[in-house]
Amino acid sequence: MAEGQHSLRYIERDAVMHRIYPLVKLAWVFMVAAGLFLYKTPLSGAINFVILLLLTVFLGKIPLREILSSSKFILGLGLILMFFHLIADPGNVVYQLGPLKVTDTGLIQGPIFFFRLSVVVLASFVLIWTTDTRDLMVSLAKAGIPYRFAFAVFLALRFLPLVQQEVDAVRSAHAIRGRASKSSLGHRIKLWQRYMFTVLVNGLRKAEAAAAALECRAFGSSPTRTYVKDVHFHAVDLVLLIVTAAIITVLVLRERTGFLF
Questions:
Q1: Domain range for residue 247?
Q2: Burial class (CB in 10 A: 0-12, 13-18, 19+), 103
Q3: What is residue 43's three-state secondary structure?
Q4: Checking CA distances to 151, which of 16, 23, 176, 218 falls within 20 to 30 Å?
Q5: What is the pLDDT of residue 16?
Q6: pTM of whole model > 0.90?
């Protein structure tokens, strides 16, 4: 992906993660998310975050700058969520700053929720960055899902970067005409209303054009469909799931027994 292009799209690379079967990566995202709800300490979430970051950089060949640029909003929400639990969870007060009281329970639960949000979002981004949406559509159809529903998933993922591009284009147009970034709060709220209206109208136009194109090609008239580019599953792809399951098991056992390390 060239510099300046958008984050929520497939980044073509010759990397290990790109060659893994799409459904295996989809199952991997759900496995990572499920594991996060089994952890009882922030350390396990932190270990998952570091491992996922290393996997993204070295096995996905995604630049660290791209990762931070795409995740800064979610990381910010995670920090807000962590701060909320620091002062809202009941427990013994360990630090007080005016009316704000940090509890011992909050010191544990706050980072846990931060890593839950951050790791799940980053894993989802890895799936988007390393998976061609066409390959995901084909793999879903080969798994027995009707190709109409598989194509709906393809369209949803395909429209994500288009919507993001529309928002950036509208924001740039308003900034050139009125320097919206330096305007008052009330004016900026009105500008956001215009953003939403413009993006909604353009989105409906694109959806109408896509529907017309599908109708012209008689999409859905046949119970089966062929594909120019096929996707094949290899048993070695399961290594990702096996290693992830092993890491989750080790971390859970460490928390429950304290025997491993």
A1: 1-131+232-261
A2: buried
A3: helix
A4: 16
A5: 94
A6: no
